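Attaching the record inline, Q. Sequence:
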Amino acid sequence: MAVVTENYQHLLALIFAVNQINDNPYLLPNITLGFNIYDSYLSARWTYHAAMQFISPKNRFIPNYRCETEGNLLAVIEELISELSVQIPNALSIYKIPQLVFSSATVDIENTNLLSSYRMVPETYQYTAILQLLQYFKWRWIAFIAASGVTLDWFMKIMLPEFSKKDICFAVVESFTSLCACFDFERYNFMKCAFEFYEKVMSSKANVLVFYGDTHSMILLRYLLSKDIEGIMSKPKGKVWILTVGMELKSFVSRKSWDIGAFNGAISFALHSNELPGFEQFLQNRKPSSSNGDGFIREFWTQAFGCTFQDLVEDDDVSGDTCTGEEKLENLPEHVFPKSVTGQSYTIYNAVYAVAYALHAMYSFRSKNREKMKRKRRVHHNQLMWQLHHFLKSVSFNNTDERKVCIDQKGNLMAGFDIINWITFPNQSFSGVRVGKVDPWASADEAIFINEEAITWHSWFNQAQPISQCNAKCKPGYRKKRKEGEPFCCYDCIPCPKAFISDKEDLAECFKCPDDQYANMEQDLCIPKHITFLSYEEPLGISFVICALSFSFTVTLILRVFMKHHDTPIVRANNQNLTYTLLISLFLCFLCILLFIGQPQKTTCLLRQTAFGIIFVVAISTLLAKTITVVLAFRGTQPGCKIKKWMGKKMTQGIVLFCSMLQVGICLVWMVTCPPVPETDVHSLREEIVLQCNESTSVMFYCVLGYMGFLAFASFTVAFLARKLPNRFNEAKCITFSMLVFCSVWLSFIPSYLSTKGKSMVAVEIFSILTSSVGLLVCFFSPKCYIILLRPDLNKKELFLKRKH
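Structure, as predicted:
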């Protein structure tokens, strides 16, 4: 038989509490409490026998027949074991006997509204404490073993959804009865159970095993883990066992060969306990010789001290030590008999006081209503048990260590839990270290406290905090993808889509950076975008400014040369006013480049495209007017031609004015309906915020370009047809080449412009303006400047008249 010496402290806590109450003149005066203690021997037969004895006469086993006026049963303080006492709460509830249950795995969990049941270890609160512990250590992949199928069914129905809400899922969910239904403790028939247990539980990938059980299932578990199952696991993998109240390690004196190394680093819950004033002295004074009526002390003494009392053997040949009765409890190892008050002993102590305070409140209530309570003693006796329930459900008091104890309306003891870390040693001894506490009723920030430095983990983990997950966490830059057919804790890690990031581990979804930031290459960080526009400070902007000013200065020099030689034939040919107009428009074309450089403003955005469009149309219409003048001049020399009367300044001015006004009209419509405005473009480029001008409508912009292109093509066509007309200073050839360059530049501009973004678009347009303007300047004026400056002998009227005739 497995003898648990530690449990003797529970009995002493009961005796100590009853003695204190009986010695207290203010609590239950003139009433003496007594008690009977029954040992179930972990046997269903003895458990049921004890339950029936509660409702039988003294020293006679006749259930449901009691007529004594003394020794009345008030309450039962019990540890229910699932497999051994499945019907006890229901049976005792018929008689409305208050039952204060301090077992972790109570029998009928679903029927929690039994009138007679008071739970010193509330299941829901303990599950909450387990959940908080799992969250604290970030254990997401666990195995769960329940003591019985009833407990497992309740867990699956009530608590499993709560665990799932906290992203905790299970590698194994089983009941111990289903895993070990074949086990016969007496016959040691454990092989089938052991194989199934190791295959389903110990071989799982989960590093954390939650065992929600009782004393009986703990004995069976220790027996299984202490045996070497040949061929199953040569070196069993270490696990973190999380044990519920009542499943903490206890010393089984008769089972010293059971190895407990598997439980090294285990964590168990115990109801919060404090040292009781006077209890330590009470233990020290406990002797077999001075404990009359204690039927357990001599058996405890022989098991704990490993000795034998002389009067228990038939002959004088006694092997081993002889018990003197003077051995001291404080000399026993902690794992054999703990000196400090355990959680169960503290709970039993408080349970006794709860019954006493409830009974005291009931008698106080009766004294206040004496007129209504004039009945016979027998009648009071029959009503005591059911009347006590009302007061038990509202009992609240401070015990001897000044701790508040209360039971809520649902019959649950309002108490927190201590977290115990178990350290085992090669000599099969062990020590429980209190490493934290859990208060299920506290706020989320204060619900759990753990001293991680005080925890000893299983040697398998090399003293590092264990990790229990189905798979490795997804690194930043990746997101989780659910694996089909597996629990939600099992997933693949896939990279975030382009422009999305994940900056924490195990994110379910990636997210986009704010508009003013962009994702880095690893996609785990958002980097602020830098603001960009074609500025005067950067090399490209400086280059464009230098080119614009240089060519503007060149146009000014050419204009100066032409004005200085305004009387020469080559300047006067084909209307010198048109030449001056063309030079001025080219001068403005170069200067309008400056509108495209610098941070876009409302004014510059309005003027950019309109100024460029109108100025270029003036230049092209001037060339068109010159070409038409050449054609009309040649036609006017033929006999009988009436075209000559159309030739003159008014006609050329009219062409330039008409063509320009059409472009002005297009620009005015654009400015009135949807004018360009400055905008901040955060989407076009990945790493930049572009400050640019929004043209508002591409239709009007391409209308401006289209009209300019139409005039250029018309001018090119007319000039090309007039290129071979017999004229000494025929400008048609120069205009043809100028328009050819102009059209080539702007035809290539459109695809280049559409394929670029940001300030590159501005640079493409500036380059097109600059190139086309230089083309016009070079192709049209370089031949004239060559003659004026380098070949003045060709710039004579005589040569012109000679060529003309």
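Residues 602-636 form the longest helix (35 residues). The CA atoms of residues 110 and 781 lie 103 Å apart.

More tomorrow.
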